[in-house]
Automatic annotation (TrEMBL):
GO terms for molecular function: ATP binding; kinase activity. InterPro entries: ATP_grasp_subdomain_1, PEP_Utilizing_Enz, PPDK_AMP/ATP-bd. Keywords: Pyruvate. This is Phosphoenolpyruvate synthase. The lineage of its organism: Bacteria, Pseudomonadati, Bacteroidota, Flavobacteriia, Flavobacteriales. The keyword rRNA processing does not apply.
Length: 972
């Protein structure tokens, strides 16, 4: 009996331990947060002494003096500590006594540091957040100990030169949140206080919007006027809150104490040059007679500070310089609002100055700044420019805004999305950082320039009745009618409807068919989502974060949306559509723009594994899909740059589909064909398309599940193992491989099919390869794959998957090449997008994108993806993090890409039919130790109907591109 009880106790102990170690759900975390808010001790357990020998004592039992004492502060509840173990969540940290490396959390992309900043933000906008009742819990936090720790933290990490240079923005931002010098983040505090007051008094909302969107010193007068008008209505406590906010505003807009700053600069010991620069700036400041001159000098000194911090100087000096930089940034933000430009030249000057300030404050990396500066330099000597050059200038301005704001998002996106799942207020953090940066006025300056360009180019966006929509730009032409759905948050869990028009902050990787899309972060021009939209004539445009927020007003409305082939955007309510626009949607004929998968030449008699060396492009759609056929062609043309490969042809798939399907009294193939026959019957009976689709999806889900469980024929497995050893010189299970779905529906002249089916990365174990084959086959019958096919194919039942098996190459970086300029450049140029690690650019990563010409290249966008995957020899993927302080592609790489494109055009072009001699190609590639590897080539398919649409041509502006504009011309 005793032993039985012991077993029970051990089992219960295991259950309790296992329960505590399980990851908490978002709902459970939200419940905990609610409980902390209502608790007078919040997340804290009690006050303790934390001694230097590692022991903990009660608050009335101090650490012994002979041990040099210890620190007194609150200890955390067990539930808070468990969240650290199970969910890697750190709420409301107490810094004193923390291990510096643990808090920095570099291995997890500085997650713990970023969570500290986010917690500070939440506390500022939500009355203490989880400390709502505990923020005045006496003794919980000792401010002096926090500041001492903060100073020690910075003097420690600032010694690491590489860390500072690769994460300059993050470290500089953290100084606004981590106590180390009696400092405070006044800009954030001002916005937080105004937000809270606007929630209490909705009539204050207009002023709050002004403070958030266009902050100026005159806002103090607006707040005082509001107080005077509403004095009788306001409670005493509310008046105190307004007085507190006014004090914050006065401090934010107060003139800098240059004598004090001069003394601080004088403490710098290891670089006298920057001391001289700073002291000259401080002493000459009073002679600067305009916001323009103040901003120019401030931007210059901010840049000098950044250059100096990147050098070998004392960590204590770096800390002084970074603190000064944050103070001067506030000054730059204020003066940028005060500088009102009148002429085109002055606007260009302001844009260049703000770009310099953006670099100085960490929003741009040095190499990015140099790329931009080179483009500004071409304008400086000109007295007049053409309309074409003016549009290029606007594109440059939009790029600067996007690169700056996207750097902020890239630093915090992962942390913000993690917190938003259980605390929706967290979502505003990134926007708050943007508004407390030079990026805010960069956006306004570009918007003003955009209005001027609109007039001169006759290129105007017509988006409801909204102002400031010049930031919108078309990515590919098309038109759509449907319900507008605005997704201001994580899109990955959104269930899209093919009849709707979606506005995303960032497009989801596995986007199902939609009528139209707009995105703030376009990812890159050659991601699968962008290529599908381009191929299928789905209107697609980029817009600003502010544009997205304004469109929320129209969420749920039926709208007409069009993008012309010159990139202007139209968005209007249904009732405002013209007769011509209504006629575009009057007839919904199923055959329109639909195509048929050719199957007359398909070879289902080949039921053995095929070596990729034996196939070429002519086998595409017959023996296997185009990935394998074209890669086999590439293997013959570029033997040293293409890996070996095996192909599981269509015939092997069909052979297995002819096996009996469990519990159906028919084969898998008969079940599939019967499903489509039944769907046709339902349509003939005038069943709704929604009802037909529901039936299809339910049937295909059953087929998908059954294929995952299909028993592969032993003869096939034996054949696979034999070929594996022959091709890869090793037994199956010893070499990690990719399994790539390769159907006969891909790369048709009118339909790309990019990214619709499954690719399995770096599979090593034999059983996982066997199961992976079934998973790839089954992926042809997922909801997403079916919906795209059903929407555009006349015979989606005749889709046959083959599988391409290639050994993994653990590339340093990878991407996509399109052998023409997309949206910019000519047909002889190259568009390239590349990201760190494997699978670069295809999944919509914010990739480094370049237009590569015969003699140079233009940076279209720098990478803004902080995480990437590598392919270890043990199989699977391993996640790493990167910074943005250096470009991904080097000159050697770009020259290799030029040579590759030339060879593709010559070697593959000469084999093409007469109609395809000008065929553009989409090539997936990677670099390992600067060696170029080729993984895929396919035709680049664009929607010709969208480009030639009579309506889209009619809304495109008629522009005289060589018309000259004087740089001294006034904007208004």
């Amino acid at each position: 009996m005793r032993n039985y009880c012991k077993v029970i106790l051990l089992f219960l102990s295991f259950l309790i331990t296992n329960t505590y170690s399980q990851k908490k759900t978002s709902e459970e975390i939200a419940t905990l947060i609610t409980s902390y808010k209502a608790d007078i001790r919040g997340p804290y357990e009690r006050i303790n002494w934390f001694c230097k020998d590692g022991s903990r004592r009660n608050s009335k039992d101090p650490c012994p003096d002979e041990e040099n004492g210890g620190l007194q502060h609150a200890s955390f509840k067990s539930s808070v500590l468990k969240l650290r173990e199970t969910n890697n969540l750190y709420f409301t940290e107490i810094l004193a006594g923390l291990n510096i490396e643990s808090f920095l959390d570099e291995k997890e992309n500085f997650s713990r540091l970023k969570q500290y900043q986010l917690s500070k933000y939440l506390a500022s906008i939500n009355n203490g957040w989880i400390l709502q009742k505990a923020q005045f819990y006496r003794g919980a936090i000792q401010s002096e100990d926090e500041e001492n720790w903060g100073k020690s933290f910075y003097e420690n990490i600032l010694k690491n030169e590489a860390l500072v240079n690769s994460n300059f923005y993050l470290i500089r931002q953290s100084l606004k949140d981590i106590p180390h010098n009696g400092d405070s983040n006044l800009g954030q505090l001002m916005r937080s206080e105004s937000k809270i007051l606007a929630e209490v008094y909705p009539s204050f909302m207009e002023i709050r919007i002004k403070i958030h969107g266009n902050p100026q010193r005159t806002d103090i007068g607006l707040v005082k006027e509001f107080l005077q008008k509403n004095d009788a209505k306001l409670k005493t406590e509310t008046k105190k809150s307004f007085d507190k906010m006014l004090l914050t505003m006065e401090q934010f807009y107060a003139p800098l104490d240059f004598k004090k700053l001069n003394d601080i600069a004088g403490k710098i010991k290891s670089n006298k040059k920057i001391v001289t620069e700073l002291q000259n700036y401080f002493s000459n400041y009073k002679n600067l007679d305009s916001p323009k001159n103040i901003l120019i000098e401030t931007a210059s000194i901010l840049s000098s500070i950044r250059f100096t911090v990147s050098q070998k100087i004392l960590a204590s000096d770096k800390l002084i310089l970074l603190d000064l930089s944050n103070l001067l940034e506030t000054n730059a933000i204020i003066e940028s609002e005060n500088w009102e430009t009148e002429t085109l030249q002055e606007t260009v000057d302001k844009l260049e100055t703000l770009t310099c300030a953006a670099f100085g404050t960490g929003l741009l990396e040095l190499w990015e700044f140099n790329e931009i500066e080179n483009q500004f330099n071409t304008l400086k000597s000109k007295q007049e420019i053409t309309v074409d050059e003016l549009n290029n200038l606007l594109t440059l301005g939009r790029n600067i805004v996007e690169w700056s704001s996207s750097l902020i998002k890239a630093n915090y996106y992962e942390t913000v999305i993690k917190y938003t799942a259980f605390e929706p207020l967290a979502y505003g953090f990134t926007d708050d950082r943007i508004r407390n940066s030079i990026a805010l006025n960069l956006g306004k300056t570009v918007s003003k320039l955009g209005e001027f360009v609109t007039k001169k180019s006759n290129l105007k966006n017509a988006v409801f009745n909204l102002q400031d929509v010049s930031a919108m730009r078309g990515l590919n032409p098309g038109y759509a009618f449907g319900q507008l759905v605005v997704i201001d948050g994580n899109p990955d869990d959104v269930e899209v409807n093919s009849n709707n028009i979606y506005v995303f902050l960032k497009p989801p990787i596995d986007l199902k068919p939609v009528a139209g899309i707009m995105t703030v972060s376009e990812g890159n021009l050659v991601s699968h989502v962008q290529l599908l939209a381009r191929n299928l004539g789905i209107p697609n445009a980029a817009l600003s974060n502010d544009n997205l927020k304004k469109l929320k007003e129209f969420n749920g409305k039926k709208v007409f949306y069009a993008v012309s082939n010159k990139g202007n955007v139209i968005l209007k309510l249904e009732e405002n559509m013209t007769k011509e626009e209504k006629l575009l949607f009057e007839k919904q004929v199923r055959n329109t723009n639909m195509i048929e998968v050719p199957i007359e030449n398909i070879r289902l008699d080949v039921t053995k594994v095929v070596n990729m060396r034996t196939v070429n492009a002519t086998d595409s759609g017959r023996l296997c899909g185009p990935k394998a056929a074209n890669l086999g062609e590439l293997k013959q043309l570029f033997p040293n740059q293409v890996v070996e490969g095996l192909i599981i042809p269509f015939g092997v798939f069909k052979e297995h589909m002819n096996l009996p399907m469990p519990n159906e009294n028919k084969t898998y193939w008969q079940y599939l064909t019967d499903t489509f026959v039944e769907a046709t019957k339902k349509r003939d009976e005038n069943k709704s398309e929604t009802e037909v689709e529901t039936f299809m999806l339910k049937s295909l889900e059953k087929l998908h599940t059954s294929i995952l469980k299909i028993e592969l024929k032993q003869s096939f497995i034996t054949d696979l193992k034999s070929n594996f050893k022959t091709a890869f010189k090793s037994d199956i299970g010893k070499v990690p491989v990719f399994l790539r779905s390769d159907t006969n529906m891909e790369d048709l002249k009118e339909f790309t099919g990019a990214g619709l089916n499954l690719t399995l990365f770096n599979i090593l174990e034999e059983q996982k390869i066997i199961e992976g084959i079934k998973r790839v086959w089954a992926s042809a019958y997922t909801e997403r794959s079916f919906k795209w096919r059903q929407k555009y194919l006349l015979n989606p039942e005749n889709v046959y998957p083959s599988i391409l098996i290639i050994p993994s190459v653990d590339v340093d970086y990878s991407g996509v090449l399109i052998t023409k300029g997309i949206n910019l450049g000519t047909d002889t140029d190259l568009t390239v997008a590349v990201s760190k690690g494997a699978g670069g650019a295809v999944d919509g990563q914010s990739a480094e994108t370049r237009l590569i010409t015969a003699n140079g290249n233009i940076l279209l966008a720098p990478a803004r993806q902080s995480d990437y995957n590598r392919l270890p020899i043990t199989g699977g993927t391993k996640k790493y993090f990167t910074s943005f302080d250096a470009p991904i592609l080097n000159e050697l790489n770009m020259n290799d890409i030029r040579v590759l494109a030339k060879n593709i055009r010559e070697k593959i072009g000469e084999k093409s039919t007469e109609n395809d001699v000008n065929q553009v190609y989409d090539v997936e590639f990677g670099f390992k130790n600067n060696k170029l590897w080729l993984f895929q080539i396919r035709p680049f398919v664009e929607n010709k109907r969208a480009k030639s649409s009579e309506y889209l041509n009619s809304i495109a502006p008629k522009t005289v591109t060589n018309k000259k504009i004087n740089m001294s011309e006034k904007l208004n």
